[in-house]
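TEACHING EXERCISE
Course module: macromolecular assemblies
Task: Read the component lines below, then compare them to the predicted structure of the full complex.
Student: A.B.
Group: 4
Components provided:
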Amino acid sequence: MQKRRSVLLVDDEALFLATMAKVLGRHGLEVLTAPGGGEALILIESADPDVVVLDVKMPGLDGLATLKEIKRLRPLTPVILLTGHGTVESGQEALRQGAFDMQTKPAIVAKLLDLIEEAIRSRGLAEEAARRES
Amino acid sequence: MIAAAKRRRATLYRRLLESMLLMCLVPLFLVGGAAYVQFQLYASRMVLDQQERLVLNHRDFIESYLRGRSAELAAIANQYTLEQLRDGELERAFAVIQQGAGIYTDIGMIDDQGNHLRYVGPYNLEGRNYSSAEWFQKLKARDLVISDLFTGYRAVPHFIIAVKRTTPTGYWILRASLSTDYFSQLVERIHVGSTGEAFLLDRHGLYQTKTLFDSAPLQPSHFPYLSPHEGVRTVDLNFRGRTFLCSHVWIMGDQWLLVFRQERAEAFAPLHRALWTWALITFAALIVVSLATFAIARNLVGFVARADAEKENLHAQLLASSKMAAIGEMAAGVAHELNNPLGIIETLRTWILDLMPEKGPAEADVPEVIDSARKIGDQVERCRRITHDLLKFSRRVESERTLTDINALLAEMLQMVEHRAKADNVAFHLEAGALPSIVTSPSRLQQIILNVLNNAVDAMEGRGGTVTVRTGMRGGAVEMVFKDTGCGIPEENLQRIFEPFFTTKPVGKGTGLGLAVCYGLIQQMGGTLEVQSRVGAGTTFTLTLPATSAEPGEAH
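Instructor-supplied answer key:
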C-alpha cells in the first residue's frame, strides 16, 4: 500500500500553520507542522516528510540555515521556500543551497499545492534513480 | 539657524569694516599727517627765507644807494676848492647831482668852526652855526657822516650826508640833506601784498621813514628788538590786534634797523591755500576709501550669504533625502510584516472555498466557515493597524514644534519598529522615567529615534537581542538612552560614526547619512547625541534635549 504523502510546514505564525494544515489535509496530504527551524529538523529526522514548506524569515534558526541543515540530513527531501522579499539575490541564494523552488508571500494556496505535487513527483523520480544505481 | 547665520554675517561685516577701515585709514592718516607736518614746516621755512632774502637784498640796495650819494658829495668836495664853491660853483654842482630828480633837498658848505658859509636850498640857513650839532662833532674824527633823522634849524625831519675835505690849512665840510620823501619812497618800495612794507628805525626805535599804518617819522615805534645783532632775524609781533611777521637787519653798520613786516595771515596765505587743497584731497581720498571699503565688505558678506543659502538648501535636501530613506526602510519592514496576515487571509479564503462546494457547505462545516471569516476579520484588523502606524509616521513630515510627551512618542516608535524587527527576534523594553512634556519638533525627534533604533536592530545582525530604551531627567535635560546588545562598533569606526556618508552596511543598504543628519538635527534642537560602544557587548546612544527646548536661532 502506498504511503500517504506527507508535508512538513514550518512557520512562526501559529494561525498560518493551523489553517494551511487544514487546507492541505483536505487535499489529501498528511501535514506536519513546526513553529521554527529547530523543531522542523527533529521532525525531518524522525518522520521524514516527503516535502518541506519553509518560511525564510523566522526567529531563531531562520529559513536559509534550516534549509542547509535539511540538505545535510536528507539531501533528497525537496524544500519549498516561502519568502517575503522575492528578490533575485535571495532567490538565487536559496536555489544554490538546494531549494526545490520558492513562493512569494503571501502564498497562493493553489499554486503551493501544485508545487508540492511537483516536488513529491520529482523526489519519487530521484529516489528511483538512486535505487537503480545502487 | 538662519538667524544665527545672519548674526554671524553681521559680525563678519562689522569686523571686515573695522579691520579694512583701520588698514586703509591708519596709513592714510600717518602718511597724510606726516606729509602735512613736513610740508607745513618746509613751506613756513620757505616763506621766512623768502622774506629774509628780501630784507637782505633791500639792505644792500639802501646801503649802495647811500654810498652812491656819499661818493657824489665826496667827489664835489674833492673837485672844487672852498673858494670856488663859495663863489658860485656850489649851485652848479648841486644842479648836476640833483639830476632833476629831487634826490636832495638842499646843500651847504660849513667851515671848521661850524659856520654855514654857503647854502643852496629852500630854507634860509646861511650863517647858522653847527658846532654843537651831533653830526659836526662826529665829523671831527671821520670823513663821512650820515645822520639819523632829525629836525635841526629848519624844524622839519631830515637826513644829512656830510663829507669832510681836509686842506693843508685845516678842513671844511660839504653837507647835503636828502629829500625825506624820496628816501622814504626808496625804503618803502618793496611793498608786498596789502600789508607788506619796509621801514627804518634808529637805535632808539624812532621811525626814520613813513609806514602804512602808524606813525610819522621820528615817532617812537616801540619795536622791542633793538639790540645789535648779526644778520637777519625774524619774529612775530602783535600790532593793533594783528600778528605781523617782522624780519629785521641792521644796516649802515649799526646805525639803522631795516624792518620788513607783513601780516602773518597774508604771508602764509599761499601756504594755507595749499594746505586746504591738501586737506580736501585727503578728505576725498578718505571718502573714496570708506565707500570702497563698505562696498567690498558688503560684497564679501553677500557672497557669504549666498554660500549660507546654498548650504541651507543643501542641508534641507539632505534632511529630506534622509527622511525619505528612513521612511523607505520603515516601509520595507512594514510591507514584509503585512505579508504574514495576508498569507493567513489567503489560506483562510482557500479553506472557506474548500468547505463550500457548489451546493453549499455541509451542515457540519458551517461553524468552521464562520470561524474562518472571523479570523479573516482579525487579520484585516492587524493589517489595518500596521498600515495605520506607517501612515501616522510618514504623515508627520512637517517640523512644527509642539508640546510633546517624549515617553508616548517613544512607545509609539517602538511599537512601529517592532513590526519590522519581530522576525529578527529583537525585543524592545521601554523604561520610562518621569518626564515633563517639552516643546520640540516631534517629526524630527521621530526621525532621530527611528535612525537610532534601526541601527540598533541592524547591529543584532539577525541573531536577535534586546534594545532597552531608558528615559529620565539629567541636569535639567531630557535624556533618552538607547542600549542594544548588538555587535558593537570598533573604536576606529566610533570616531567616524557621525560623519556623512560613513557606513559599514553593504553598498545599496545604507546611505551613511542617517546618523550624520541626526547629529545635525539634534544640534539644531539644542541637544546632544553621544555614543559608547564595545565590540561584542553592544552600543549605547545617549540623546539629550533641553527641557525648555528653546532651539537657538531656529527660524523655520
